Amino acid sequence: MQNKNPASPDETEKQSGQTDNDLQELFLDELADLYNAEQQLTKALPKMIKAAQSEELKDALEQHLSETEDHVTRLEQVARSLDETLKSKICAAMKGLIEEASELLEEQKDKSSLDAAIIAAAQKVEHYEIASYGTVRTWAERMGHEEAVELLQETLDEESIADEKLSEIAEALANDTGE
């Protein structure tokens, strides 16, 4: 069995630089994906707000719409902090989640379960966003993009709070219908 010679210091440095470059490229691609996801969401949330029956749910969705608009702006700030521009990309995952939500709203229209369906759809979106923002924040941290880390963490925190609020509303609605 032959022992493979370890890479020379120059080769190791070259590989490390390529790895960082590849991660930076992936990072920018995922930021573009999130940027489009948030833009799609700003168009979808008003429909969910209009369909919601509970005032508490309407209020939570309206607050999240405002935050989502801030998320779009914050992603632009992340790109500027890196002297980059976000490329145009369609987020297929968000497109699918929104299509599924639309179908669910149509199926549940005029039913007492409509708000539960809206919450389920909204939480699927939140969980996708939490996973995505957590990933890009971690990558930003690994690459030393401190301003990006702070901005992405702020959004991640807001997404987590929105998810918790939706869970609280779901529990309250379940208790109201279970009594």
Short description:
This protein has 179 residues and is mainly α. It is built from five helices and no strands.
Explain this structure.
- The structure is a single chain.
- This protein is mainly α and 179 residues long.
- The protein has a single domain, classed as Ferritin, core subunit, four-helix bundle (Ferritin, Up-down Bundle).
- The chain contains five helices and no strands.
- The protein has helices spanning 9-51, 55-81, 92-108, 114-143, 146-178.
- Helix 1 runs antiparallel to helix 2 and helix 4 (114-143) packs antiparallel against helix 5.
- The longest helix is centred in the N-terminal third of the chain and has 43 residues, at 9-51.
- The chain is elongated and about 55 Å long.
